[in-house]
C-alpha cells in the first residue's frame, strides 16, 4: 500500500523503513494540518504523530483525497477526531503499548533531576562553583507519591516508586486490580492531592481530564509538592500552574508535555521569536524542568512503535481484525481541535 508519513524524524524513519515490508512509504518532516493534508494525495494510508492535527476539517480533506487508513505512532489519540473519522469510514489505529517503561522512566528521571537539583548542580560544576548550598532535595523513600491514571504507564511509574520505598496512592475512574495487589490505595482526587509529596499524571487527555489540574486542584496540593506531567499538556491549566509556582504553593514541576506544544515541540525554532508568554515564563522558573515530549524516545520504544504501526496496516490489508483499531467510546470525548502555534516572525 502507498503510505504517507507525516512528522517523520531521523529517529523514526529508519525503524519504519525496516518494518515497512511490501508497503511504499513516503516521508515528510512537515506536520499534518489543513495546508499539508494535500501532500497525502495518492496514498491510501497515512502515519501520524502526536504533533499532527487530525481534527474534523483535516480529516475531511484527507477523505476527499482517498485516504482510508490513519496509523498513529503513538498511544495517545486525543489529536484525532474519532467521531468524524468514523463518519467518513476512515479507520484509525494506535500503538497502545510500545514501552510504558520508556515514559515512566522519563517521569522518574525528571522527578529525580528536579528534586535533587541535578541541572543546577551541573551548571555550578561548569562554573567551577563547587558549593552545594542551593542543591538540597528530599528523600523519595518514605514519602507519598500520588498517581493519577493507573494504566500501563501509571503502573510502571508506581512500581518504580514502590521500589524507592515510597507510599503510593492513586486516583482513577477505574480500579486496576494490579494496583490493588501492589498495595496501592485509591483515593478521591482531593484526598490524593492533599496527601502527596509528588503527583504524577498518567491519564489520557479527554474532555474530562482537560484542565484536571486547575486553580482548585493546585490549592489542594501539599505546599512544596512536585508535579510531574508526562501525559498531555492540556491536562494542566497552564495559567493556573504559573500562579501556583508564583505563590510557591507548588514546589516544582516536571513537564515533558505542554498545553500549546503543537507547532513548537519537535521543531527547530532557534531562530524564531516565541510569542507564547506563558511558555517563556515557565522556562524562566528554576524549579521547572521542561523537555520537548521525549518520554517515548528510547530505541526500544521506537522499534516497537514502527513494527506495531506496520502490523496494524497489514491487518487491515489482509482483512484480519486489528486489535489496536480505535472506536469512539461513549462518555470519552477526544480533544482534537485545531490549535495555532504561537510563534511569530524570526529573530
Ligand atoms: P492507559 O490507557 O493504559 O491508562 C490510562 C489510565 O487513565 C487508565 O487507567 C484510565 O482509566 C485512566 N483515566 C482515564 N480517564 C481518567 C480520568 N478522567 N481521571 C483519572 N484517570 C483517568 O494509557 P497509558 O499507556 O498508561 O498512557 C497514558 C497517557 O500517557 C496516554 O494517553 C498519553 O497521553 C501519554 N503518553 C505520553 C507519552 C510521552 O512521550 N510523554 C508517550 C505515551 C503516552
UniProtKB/TrEMBL annotation:
Domain D-isomer specific 2-hydroxyacid dehydrogenase catalytic span(s) in chain numbering: 4-325
PROSITE patterns: D_2_HYDROXYACID_DH_1, D_2_HYDROXYACID_DH_2, D_2_HYDROXYACID_DH_3
Source taxon at top rank: Bacteria
Occurrences of domain D-isomer specific 2-hydroxyacid dehydrogenase NAD-binding (ranges): 108-295
One Gene Ontology term of the molecular function aspect: NAD binding
Annotated PANTHER family: 2-HYDROXYACID DEHYDROGENASE HOMOLOG 1-RELATED
Annotated family: Belongs to the D-isomer specific 2-hydroxyacid dehydrogenase family.
Protein name in UniProt: 2-hydroxyacid dehydrogenase
Organism field: Chryseosolibacter histidini
